[in-house]
Structures are given as structure tokens and as C-alpha cells.
UniProtKB/TrEMBL annotation, chains A, B:
The organism's place on the tree of life at top rank: Bacteria
Family per record: Belongs to the Nudix hydrolase family.
Gene3D superfamilies assigned to the protein according to its UniProt record, in alphabetical order: Nucleoside Triphosphate Pyrophosphohydrolase (3.90.79.10), Winged helix-like DNA-binding domain superfamily/Winged helix DNA-binding domain (1.10.10.10)
Name recorded for this polypeptide: ADP-ribose pyrophosphatase YjhB (NUDIX family)
CDD domains to which the protein is assigned, alphabetical: NUDIX_NadM_like
Keywords: Hydrolase
PANTHER family: ADP-RIBOSE PYROPHOSPHATASE, SLR1690 PROTEIN
Statement: the UniProt record of this protein carries the keyword Hydrolase: yes
Chain segments annotated as coiled-coil in the UniProt record: none
All residue ranges annotated as the Nudix hydrolase domain in the record: 42-189
Length: 314, 314
DNA sequence: GAAATAGTGTCTCTGAGACAATATACT
DNA sequence: AGTATATTGTCTCAGAGACACTATTTC
């Protein structure tokens, strides 16, 4: 056994022995002399895909309002992509983690905190930002529309909630020489708000060979979104759709009290698919808890109100 | 509609209109004048959790060899953490994406390419590297032990495959004032090779409140691993365990031809749990394809060999 | 009573868990 | 013949899909 193994890490609080390197330096001496060097370094931005669900008013007072999935975008007030819409985000500072940067951006833009936040993916395509080398560490946040109040940030000309639609346009499959294949799916991402409509087509390519498999996303066309943010939004929607089915993630989009029909509408708007009532209720039964409250004056039979069940997570 | 919306993105190849910003600059002029500025920037490393499965020889020639899950570690030849074991990895260069950096590291360390590679998570705790501000964009690779041949890299004193054991030690639950709670799980990560044994305890804390939920990992104790790599390995194992159940990910650990029993052993060693044969075979039936080959000279009934079924992925 | 939604019951089908029975090479 | 593993069959139970039926409030 090497003697250096006798050390403990600084994490458990013990002192390190003074192991010396090839230059005869202890770790302390090494670090004192260490200079960050001239390696080029990237900027790292934390970009946020902030989802919420809103009600679309109905003409018929008896009918329930339709739900809509919305994402917060900010119109760029400076170059590059001046005038385009972008995800809220900002550069990570040396005194904070990417999570903290995401939290900070979130509370700057929406004034909310204590919400569901999840790291999505780190995008690093070269040239994704025309200014300089920038990676995007992206996050997804889910917030209850009831407690939001959008504020325009510093360099943002404007901020708006865009209704999200993400639909499969077409699929293809191309065989490779070695028996593998590439499956492609084109999705249309359509974002609509009072400020207009943005559209992008994002292609998801799944390359499958004998030994490997990999999935990559590519923005095929893009009308109105800045940077590679169409790709990030597409990725976020796919993550959200995936997780809705086996976690209680969707409950973070609900207010404190809600009906099961409202919850079902949220699932339906996320999945872009109708669900059967009875099966849905069985499925979410463990995720929610009954209360003794009911809806009132709704023009039809009142509905029991539920809250998120904090116990019993898997 | 704002006139700037008439632009197309550079992605679809159209020219941009010359929109001018507050300073009267077009985007081209802005970019020509842009200087990266003096914001401090982090270094970004791509760190690899490279898994494989090996056979443990049996004394009884008739018995099947046991499978072991292994991870590749490199003994550090310089400060910091001189002598400790670390994940293979390196800094991302300005001319490559994090994926490409991961690929590069992988092929430098193991000589393989065209393997399963998946981005895991970007770790950015402040102080995680004592030298300077370094984030780790971590990747998981799965390779078939048959085609590996470990090479020691430049600044690596040594490289070795460590047998992985990751076990739940204990759980706790602490109630918060506002009705939420924190659930903690302590896992022991034990890594064993001919170079010795490394042990760490990683705590997974799940904070659940009325509105939010978040999970964080913390290294409680650590004997022999460098940086926060215990956390990264724990995260990788949890990802692997999760995905094994609903994808064909485990097949990337298999050679071209394998028996269903071998595949079951791989599932068992990943999940650290025994599975029932009949149910297992039904479950993987769609993921594999029969061949007409059989094992030979095994001291008992021969077994049909299968290969990965490339079609029919979900 | 009509409209609209709330909530429940039940039949079927599928898939997993559990266990058992049978098959087959190699020494 | 004995050993060790291979492979298949079947019973049961739980959960999801599909559909239908009943309940309740408001106007």
C-alpha cells in the first residue's frame, strides 16, 4: 500500500500529511505558488426554463377554463440577438454555484423563490454565443402561476409568458453501413404571446450502432428565439414530459389547493394528450391528500379540493 | 409586431437585417468591438465515470464466474490530492464541446471509442478544487470489458479498475416547522482494487416543502478519493441504477454475444439485488435478439447466445 | 329540468412476482 | 449418473385502459 493512502481528505477535518510532489513541494506550498495560468476559460451562464400553467378564460361561465403551459422569455435589449426572445439567465459568479446563480436569476425575474428547480443539461456547442466562449448550464423551474409577478430585468427590453406547443412533425430512419441506424424526429416548437409568435423546428437524432447510442438535438429552423434557446426549451419539455409520468413533479405547478380535474388538465397540457379520468385518479391518488374544502359557485357540482401529499415520495 | 421579428436566425442561413442597438451599432459592429471583459471565468473540466463489468474467476470450473461492476480511477501524480485516486478527466478546450472533451479523455485513457456516453451533471460547488474556480461537467461511459486496454495517461501515476459497491447504510427523516421535511440517506461507496480500498460516505438529502423539492448530495467522509469525486461516482451509480430499469443501457456493458444469464448477472450487479429468472427474461425479451450460436464446453447445458436488438428502442 | 362537471364501479388485458417443471451438455 | 445451468410454463396479483353509470350543484 502506498503511504499516501494513510492521509484523510480535508473533508473529514483531519490534517493532511505533508506529501511532497516531484518538485519537492507540499500541497500547501504548491497551492501558494499555483497561478491559474493562461488556459482560456469559458464563461458559464445559468439559463432558466421557467414553466407555469395558466387558465385560458372560457366564454361559457359554466365551463371550466382551459389550461395552458407557459414559459417565460425575455426580449433582448442589446446585441447579440437584439430584439429576439431569450431564456432568462446570466453569468455564474465565482462566489456562487450554478444552482445559486439559477436561483438568483429566478428571483430577479419573477420575484419568487422556494420553487422546484432542476438542473437540465450543460450546452457547450462552439459558436453558440457569437460574442465569446459561453457554456449554458440550464435549469428548469416550475412555479404556480398564482404567485408570480413578472418583472423586467436590467438589460431586458421586455418579459412575457409564452404559451408552449411542442408537437412531433415527422420521423425518419436512415440505415448505416454497419447495421446501425439514425432515427430522427422533427418537432415543432411554437411559442405564442401577446407579443407575437415564435417558431422553431428542433431535430432529435438518435444514433444507434452495435456498440454505442447517442442522442443529439439540432435547431433546424428558428424564427425569433435567441442563441440555441430553442434547443434548451425542447430539451426541457422532453424532460418535463418524461418526469410527469413517474414523479410528482407536476404538483409544483399547482396552487396550494386544487381539484383533481385541474391537476388532470395540467398533466394533459404537459403531455399534449387526453387522459382517462378514472385511471388518472387512481394514478395520482398517492401523490395528493384530500382536504375538507370544495369549489363553490361553479355552475355545476362542486369539486373536492386537494393538496400535495408531502409524504410517500418515491 | 416589432420589425426586428422579420429577421431570421443565422441558423437558417439568411442574412440579418442591420438592427442597431442603443449605441447605434449593428450586430456586426457590436461583435467586432466586443471584448470578453474582465469577468472572472471558471475552468470547466470534463470528468468521466467509466463503468465496465468484469468476471471474477470461480474455483469450480463448472460454476459461472461472478460479475463485478468496475469503475476506472487514476492515481494523481501531482498536487492537489497527490496520491489520491480521481476520475479520469481534463479541462475542456475552446475548440471543443464538453462531449468532445469527454470523448477525448475516454480515448486517451482507455483507447476505446464509439461507446455509450451520457452527460450526468455539472458540479460547481465553490472550493471543490483548491487550485482555482473549476466546474466539473461529468459524463458516464459504459464499455464492454472485452475491448478495453487501460493506458496510464500523462500526469497519471497509475490507473486501475476499482470494483464498485454502493450500499444504503441508513436513513433519517427530520420534520421542518412549515410541514415539510428532510429525508436523508447515507450510502457507503466502497471501491476495491489491487491497489487497495477507498471508502466514502455520501449523504443524499431530499428537502420537501409545501412548494419546493430538492435533492442534494454531500460527501460525509472520504478516504482516498480526490476532489468531490465520491459524489460524482455516487450520482453516476444512481443514474445507472435508475436507467437500467427502463432502457437498454445495460446492454452497452455487454460484448457482442452474450447469454441471458450473463445479462441478468449484469443487471444484478448494477442493482445489487437478485432477480427472478423468468421475469427477467420476459422483461428483456424485446431488448435482445436471438442468434444461432451457443456456449460450448461449459460443464453443463449450453446456453443460447444473444446480441443487442438495435430495433425497437423506446 | 337542463347543463356541466364530480366521482365511482367494473371488466379486461397486460406485466411482474413467485414457484415449479422440464431439458441438456459436460465430466 | 450426477452436476450445474438453460429454458419454459403457469398461477396469482396489481395496475392501467376503456367505458359506463350515478351524484350533485347552479341557473
Amino acid at each position: 500500500m502506498l503511504s499516501v493512502r494513510a492521509e484523510r481528505t480535508r473533508l473529514d477535518g483531519d490534517k493532511k500529511m505533508d506529501v511532497r510532489d516531484r518538485d519537492g513541494l507540499t500541497e500547501r506550498e504548491f497551492l501558494e505558488r499555483y497561478s491559474a495560468g493562461d488556459y482560456e476559460r469559458p464563461s458559464v451562464a445559468a439559463d432558466m426554463v421557467i414553466f407555469t400553467v395558466t387558465d385560458e378564460e372560457e366564454d361559457n361561465y359554466r365551463k371550466l377554463p382551459e389550461k395552458e403551459l407557459r414559459v417565460l422569455l425575455i426580449q433582448r435589449g442589446g446585441h447579440p440577438y437584439l430584439g429576439r426572445w431569450a431564456l432568462p439567465g446570466g453569468f455564474v459568479r465565482p462566489t456562487e454555484t450554478t444552482e445559486q446563480a439559477a436561483q438568483r436569476e429566478l428571483s430577479e425575474e419573477t420575484g419568487v423563490d422556494n420553487v422546484y428547480l432542476e438542473q437540465l443539461y450543460t450546452f457547450s456547442d462552439i459558436g453558440r454565443d457569437p460574442r465569446t466562449w459561453v457554456m449554458s448550464c440550464s435549469y428548469m423551474a416550475l412555479i404556480d402561476a398564482g404567485k408570480v409577478q413578472v418583472r423586467a430585468g436590467d438589460d431586458a427590453a421586455n418579459a412575457a409568458w409564452f404559451k408552449v406547443a411542442y408537437r412531433l412533425l415527422g420521423e425518419g430512419k436512415e440505415l448505416l453501413k454497419d447495421g446501425g441506424y439514425v432515427r430522427t424526429q422533427q418537432h415543432e416548437l411554437r411559442l405564442v404571446s401577446e407579443h407575437g409568435e415564435l417558431t422553431a423546428i428542433v431535430e432529435r437524432a438518435q444514433t444507434v450502432t452495435e456498440t454505442a447510442s447517442c442522442t443529439s438535438y439540432r435547431v433546424v429552423s428558428n424564427d425569433g428565439l435567441a442563441f440555441d434557446h430553442a434547443k434548451i426549451i425542447a430539451y426541457a419539455i422532453e424532460r418535463l414530459r418524461g418526469k410527469v409520468n413517474y414523479t410528482d413533479i407536476a404538483l409544483h405547478l399547482m396552487p396550494k389547493l386544487f381539484t383533481l380535474t385541474e391537476l388532470q388538465q395540467v398533466y394533459e397540457v404537459i403531455l399534449d394528450k387526453e387522459l382517462l379520468k378514472a385511471a388518472f385518479r387512481r394514478k395520482v391518488a398517492d401523490l395528493v391528500a384530500e382536504t375538507d374544502h370544495y369549489t363553490e359557485n361553479v355552475g355545476h357540482r362542486p369539486s373536492r379540493l386537494y393538496r400535495r401529499n408531502l409524504e410517500e415520495l418515491r
